Amino acid sequence: MLSLNEVVPTHDEKYEEELRQKHKDEGWLFEASRRDIIRRTFLATADATYVTARWQFFNKLDFEFLWNATHALEKYFKAALLLNNIKANDLSHDITKAFYRTQDSLGADLLPNKFPTVLTERIAHITSGDRARQLRYDGPEAYVKSLNWQGGAEARYAMSSHTVATTDLYCFDLTAFLVRRLVENLQRCDKIDELRTNPEACPSRYGLLEEIYTTDDHPLRPTLGRVNYFLNPAPDTSKALPVGVLGFRSANSAMYNHIVEKAESNRSLNRAVSKRLTQWAIDSLPGIKTYKSELQKYL
């Protein structure tokens, strides 16, 4: 339940009076407050979700990784848009739509369709060579589209099958880097010029990520730092991911196993059960709308 009530006091009366005297400019105080709301509501939670997604990847919680990777990017996109006075209240959880709005609003030079070569060169020693070692996606556009399907709001119940490649972690980190660097007021010429001329620039946000990598004994430091060549200044390669055989981790959904496989079975009993399950799914399951037309063929 949303509450705007104060949970803990943020300042005393003396401090409040000093604040009023120091900042009597209504416009200044409005903008400072607006930016703080955006940072704490979207950037801070995006950072936390980003670290969570990386932990889930390392622990082979693949669906959860896809889910949280999607939502981390969603919040980074919204933070970038809102800080630049672009509305984001109609985006829902569609990160493909968020990607194109950010690109259209801020410029394809700041959010390109392809990963900049200067960034992919950081991991060339990992991803060069045979096909199994290469990045599965060539840029944030392709990665966001795939992630939106595999981990978006319509996939919240894991009704569709999914595949995660080892190199998808680098695609996630690269995309998060490219979006997080835009969480800034780009109306300032010095900021936008820096980002346009230097694809490697990612100004410090004083957020959770900065807190983690500047604190030697931070409990989340191993999760953020491990093979993170983009959003951590000093990547930890002591626990590198396998290089020789990167491969994939895949899982069929329960819907596929119990409806599709049974429908294709030679046993009449299995085919009959498939039809009953299909009708039950259409009639009863939440989140089934996306898959309804596909399921119709199994009735």
Question: Can you summarize this structure?
Answer:
This protein has 299 residues and is mostly helical.
Topology:
Layout: H1 13-22, H2 26-58, H3 62-83, H4 95-106, H5 117-120, H6 124-127, H7 140-151, E1 162-165, H8 168-180, H9 189-197, H10 208-213, H11 221-225, E2 248-251, H12 254-263, H13 268-284, H14 292-295
Antiparallel strand pairs: 1-2
Helix pairs in contact: 2-3, 3-4, 3-7, 3-8, 4-7, 12-13
Structural features, described:
- This protein is an all-alpha fold.
- The chain folds into two domains: 26-251, no CATH class; 255-298, no CATH class.
- Helices cover 54% and strands 3% of the residues.
- The protein has 14 helices and two strands, in the order αααααααβααααβααα.
- The chain has helices at 13-22, 26-58, 62-83, 95-106, 117-120, 124-127, 140-151, 168-180, 189-197, 208-213, 221-225, 254-263, 268-284, 292-295; strands at residues 162-165, 248-251.
- It has a two-stranded antiparallel sheet.
- Helix 2 (26-58) runs antiparallel to helix 3 (62-83), helix 3 (62-83) runs parallel beside helix 8 and helix 12 packs across helix 13 (268-284).
- The radius of gyration is 23 Å and the shape is globular.
- The model has no long low-confidence stretch (mean pLDDT 86).
